[in-house]
Inverse folding.
């Protein structure tokens, strides 16, 4: 049985009250994700681990690039080839010496050299947006 092409890719997010939710259509059904609960996404080839704030993680058979396209409008930023982080769960960061971020779950993630300047610009914009 051939499934419609849209069932193999990430679908756009919806807004329910204050919570942002995203529905991901998979080959065997659909999965609903609360965007506000995601701390980071970790890419492993054609698979992505989604790490939640309660400490759990879930494996999806989608690339990190697909998650980037879906989550970047929701204050997520890609800091390296393997990591997409939620800026709302950013605890600390350093762009001097060895650039890295520390998430609220105490995980340290290195920032790629080529993404350092873009990360600094995104942090400035996020800070301005958060204050306003």
């Amino acid at each position: 049985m051939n499934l419609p092409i849209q069932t193999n890719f990430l679908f756009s997010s919806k807004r329910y009250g204050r919570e942002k939710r995203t529905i991901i259509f998979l080959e065997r059904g659909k999965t609903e994700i609360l965007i506000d609960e995601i701390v980071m996404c970790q890419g492993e080839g054609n698979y992505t681990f989604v790490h939640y704030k309660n400490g759990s993680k879930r494996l999806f058979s989608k690339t990190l690039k697909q998650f980037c396209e879906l989550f970047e409008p929701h204050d997520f930023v890609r800091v390296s080839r393997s990591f997409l982080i939620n800026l709302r769960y950013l605890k600390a960061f350093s762009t001097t010496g060895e650039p890295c971020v520390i998430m609220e779950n105490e995980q340290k993630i290195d920032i790629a050299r080529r993404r350092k300047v873009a990360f600094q610009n995104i942090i400035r914009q996020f800070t301005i947006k958060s204050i306003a």
User: Anything to note?
Assistant: The chain has one domain: 38-131. The longest strand covers residues 19-26. The domain at 38-131 is CATH 2.40.50.1020 (OB fold (Dihydrolipoamide Acetyltransferase, E2P)).
